[in-house]
Amino acid sequence: MRLNEHPVLRFEHGREITIYFEGRPIRAYEGETIATALHAAGIRVLNYSPNEKRPRGLFCAIGKCSSCLMVVNGIPNVRTCITLVEDGMRIERQHGRAKLPREAKPPEFRDAKVVTADIVIIGGGPAGLMAAIHAADAGARVVLLDENHMLGGQLVKQTHKFFGKREQFAGVRGVEIARILEEELKKRENIEIFLETSAVGIFQEGDEKLVLAVRKNRELLEFRGRAIVVATGAMEKMIPFENNDLPGIYGAGAIQTLMNTYGVKPGDRVLIVGAGNVGLILAYQLIQAGVEVKAIVEAMPKVGGYFVHAAKVRRLGVPILTRHTILRAEGKEKVERAVVAQLDENWQVTPGTEKTFEVDVIALAVGLRPSIELLHQVGCQIKYVRELGGHVAVRDEWMETTVRGIFIAGDSAGIEEATTAMLEGKIAGIAAALRLGIANESWVKGLETAQRDLDEFRSGPFGRHIADGIRKILAEVRA
C-alpha cells in the first residue's frame, strides 16, 4: 500500500524499525505515525466502540476525533494518528473504554516546566506560522506549539498550486509553502517551537495568560505570555447515513495525509461525497496516486468548487453526480460497497435511482467546522455563523476576541482557504504585538495592507458568503 512513485512528491522514509501489533511484527519507518504504519500493513480496524462494539478506523488523522484510539505500550486512549512509531512499540486494538494500568503515574501539575514569552501561539498551520513570523519581526518573544510532529498544518498535504497574488504564494504548491514558512520561522531567534505538544487549557492569571499543555503524552508544560493567538484550525464534518462509522470512511484530509504526507494509498477504489473544491482536488490527488475514483456525489444541483477543478476531474473520466446523496456503506469490518441515490427538488430520495459502487474507501469532503474548544473554555463569546462553518468566537478587525489579549486566525476563526488563513495570521501576529506595546506605529500599515488583501480576496463570488459572515461577527462586536 506504500507509494513508490508520484508525479509531484518524493517520499523520504526514515530508518526502518519494527513495531508489534497484537504480537505481530509490522515494518514501520521513523517519522511516521502509528496509524500510518498500520494502514500501510493493511490494518484498518483500530478499535471497537464502547456500547455496540462496532469496528472503528482512521477518520480525521489530525488528532481531533476518537476513531484511532489504541492501547500503546499498555497505555489506552493513545491518538495513533499523531503519535509517532518507536522501535519495539507494542500496539493493541482498544475494546471500548479502557483504564490506565495501576503502575502508570500521570504527571503532576507542580512538576510542569514553565516557558515564558510575550506571545504564545497555539497551532503551527498557515495561520500560526504567519502569526509567529510577523509577531517576531515586530519584536515580540514568541512561543509556538503544535500537537503534530511537523509544522505546516494542512499545507503539508496540498499538492495543488495556489491562486491569488505573488505575495500570497500564487502558483506555489502547498507543500512548498509549508517548507518556505518553516525556513522563515527558524531564521528568527526570538521564536521557540514545541512540537508534539497539545494545549489542554487556557487560563488567566493576573496580567498573564497561561496555556497548559502536554508534550509527547509524558511531559506537562506551562506556557506563560501576555497574549495568545489561537490558530487551532478545524475538523472534518460528518453526515448521517447508514454504517457511516465503518473503517474505510475517511474525512478528505485524512486521505490527503496518508497519500501526500506519508506516501500510503488509502485504498484502491474510492467514492467521494462532496463536489466542493476539497472534493474535486482530492479526486485529482487520488488519481495522481494511482487510485481509481469511481464517482463524486453532490447533493446540491451544481458543483460547488471552481470550474477549472471540475473540468480537470471530468476530463480524467470521473463522473460528478449532482443531486445525489450516499444512502449507506456496506461491509462487515470495513467498507466494501457504497449505495447512492438521486434527490428530488424537495431533497427526498427518488425511488428506483439507487446505484451501487464497489469501493473500499468512502471520502467525505462535506466541509469543516472551526476548532473552538479552547476559546470556549477560556470564556470567549461564541456565536453560530453559518457562513463561517458553525460556531466561532466573536472578534474584531484585529482578530482579537472578547477576552482581551486572546486573538484568533485561520480556520478556527471561520472556514476559508489557506491564503486567507495566512493573511489572518499576519494580522493577528502584528495586532498582538501592537496591543502589548512591543511593535511601533509603523506596523499598523502592514496590518492595514493585510486587511485590504483579505477584503480583495473575499470580493469574488466564492468569498461573498464569508464576507457576509464576518459582517455578522463585527456587528456583534459593535453592538
- The CATH architecture designation of the largest domain is 3-Layer(bba) Sandwich
SS class: alpha/beta
Q: Give the uncertain stretches in residue-range form.
A: none
What's the end-to-end separation, in Å?
Answer: 55 Å
Amount of helix: 10-25%
Mean pLDDT: 94
CATH superfamily of the largest domain: FAD/NAD(P)-binding domain
Largest sheet: 7 strands, mixed
How big a fraction of the residues is strand?
Answer: 25-35%
Alpha plus pi helix count? 10
Number of domains: 3
CATH class of the largest domain: Alpha Beta
Domain 2Fe-2S ferredoxin-type: 15-97
Keywords: Oxidoreductase
GO molecular function, one term: 2 iron, 2 sulfur cluster binding
Organism: Thermococcus piezophilus
Kindly describe this structure.
The chain is an alpha/beta fold and 479 residues long. It has 3 domains: 16-95, Roll (Ubiquitin-like (UB roll)), CATH 3.10.20; 110-235 and 369-478, 3-Layer(bba) Sandwich (FAD/NAD(P)-binding domain); 249-366, FAD/NAD(P)-binding domain (3-Layer(bba) Sandwich). It is built from 10 helices and 28 strands. The chain has helices spanning 34-40, 126-137, 174-186, 252-261, 277-288, 307-315, 373-378, 418-435, 443-457, 464-478; strands spanning 16-21, 24-29, 47-48, 55-56, 69-72, 75-79, 90-95, 113-116, 119-122, 142-145, 191-194, 197-205, 208-215, 219-225, 227-230, 234-236, 249-251, 269-273, 292-298, 320-322, 324-330, 337-342, 355-357, 361-364, 368-370, 382-385, 390-393, 406-408. The strands form 7 sheets. Strands 1, 2, 3, 4, 5, 6 and 7 form a 7-stranded mixed beta sheet that branches. Strands 11-10-9-15-28 form a 5-stranded parallel beta sheet, covered by helices on one side. Strands 17-24-18-19-20 form a 5-stranded parallel beta sheet. Strand 26 (382-385) and strand 27 (390-393) form a beta hairpin. Helix 2 packs parallel to helix 3 (174-186) and helix 2 runs parallel beside helix 8. It is globular, with a radius of gyration of 22 Å.
